[in-house]
TrEMBL record:
Binding site for substrate: 155-158, 210, 255-259, 263, 327
Protein name, per record: UDP-glucose 6-dehydrogenase
Lineage: Bacteria, Pseudomonadati, Pseudomonadota, Gammaproteobacteria, Chromatiales
UniProt-listed InterPro entries: 6-PGluconate_DH-like_C_sf, NAD(P)-bd_dom_sf, UDP-Glc/GDP-Man, UDP-Glc/GDP-Man_DH_C, UDP-Glc/GDP-Man_DH_C_sf, UDP-Glc/GDP-Man_DH_dimer, UDP-Glc/GDP-Man_DH_N, UDPglc_DH_bac
Catalytic site positions: 266
Amino acid sequence: MDVTIFGSGYVGLVTGACLAEVGNTVLCIDIDPAKIDLLNSGGVPIYEPGLDELIKSNREAGRLRFSTDAEAGVRHGLFQFIAVGTPPDEDGSADLQYVLAVARTIGEHMDGYRILVDKSTVPVGTADKVAAAVRETQAARGATVEFDVVSNPEFLKEGAAIEDFMRPDRIIVGTDNPRTAELLRALYAPFNRSHDRLMVMDIRSAELTKYAANAMLATKISFMNELSNIAEAVGADIDKVRVGIGSDPRIGYQFIYPGCGYGGSCFPKDVRALEQTARSLGYDPQLLHAVEAVNFRQKELLFKKINDYFAGDLKGRTIALWGLSFKPNTDDMREASSRVLMESLWAAGASVRAFDPVAADETRRIYGERADLTLAADAMSALDGADALAILTEWAQFRSPNFATVHGKLKTPVIFDGRNILDGRLANAAGLTYVSIGRLPLRPG
Ligand code: UDX
């Protein structure tokens, strides 16, 4: 089938590459010529495991093309995926200008029936706005070409996006038109093999499902982070509590890891946007507000622990950071906890020596060259001349360091583990104090 994808960002590229891989002919459109040039010369603008190879092989097979020519895009696909960004407005609500611009482009150039598929995470009611934008643009040129708008939210996890697309937990199709539902079912058939995971529902429920899923997951994390602070206060160990409650299948072991807060492109933005939607309709969403507030406080926690440890004396000190991305296997630093910590350390007059396996370039892009930031070539050299070590991202390679080497390099033998990934007793055995989340500090001896 012929598919057009508007927006060659994270969601657009993964969707395009995976749909091409199963035999569709996919044309990806983006307004950024630099991005399209890069893709056409074999580059990939984002880091996602497996995506480079998938794009390369499908490009070479002629099933995946990239262009800035929006008109050609509208002519190409029966399916017109909208996968452009919905950045937050000042008040936290999703900014729809890019989504609606694509809708108008489609309305302007469509010469036959098209299915507009909303992949971007958009507030409830957006499909109606997309349809209105198409109708208005058609009316302006005196056309009345038939179309449908479908809400088909994505549930990709960064770092596992290809796997998530190829073997989805569910495929949500929001439409009021049974014929359109069948066409989407055919498009998704290769990803819906072993048992039927495709759910057809009304458009508004589909739009809300995406927000509900992310808000629920964010709630689990904030709940555990709140509990971890209570655990510390009462002298309990949150890790024991986590295992204790996770054994109840109604609670489950997944997504109940406390830490230094959630980041990324989805949770913070979507929780805020859902809160904003509720408020705009006159409902006060107290739980969503608390989920966000707890996360905000949690991101400041590591700085507080470091500052307390050094009795407020951080000026001139150097703190080593392991991990900069908001989670492992990505270079994405949107809303990353590392940024809150680095900015607090700088404000207190400290310097940062950081190492991340893939996010160094992204860090340079965000912060530029500055005297109080050094990006080290590997984890151990980040410790050279550092007073203490803080761990921000649970990259696998940080999980069992040589504690004797760490001890030898740090001026003050202390580790602040924001993801609870180390074995504190091993750190103690090497003479290091181990400060983590939701547990009292473990001191050697
Ligand atoms: C998330 C959803 O998982 C995905 O379904 C949705 O489509 C987009 O948003 P993503 O943002 O890629 O995906 O990351 P995810 O792996 O869910 O992690 C989000 C954040 O939560 C990370 O900062 C992670 O460190 C944190 N987290 C996760 C915790 O602090 N504790 C946990 O138990 C799980």
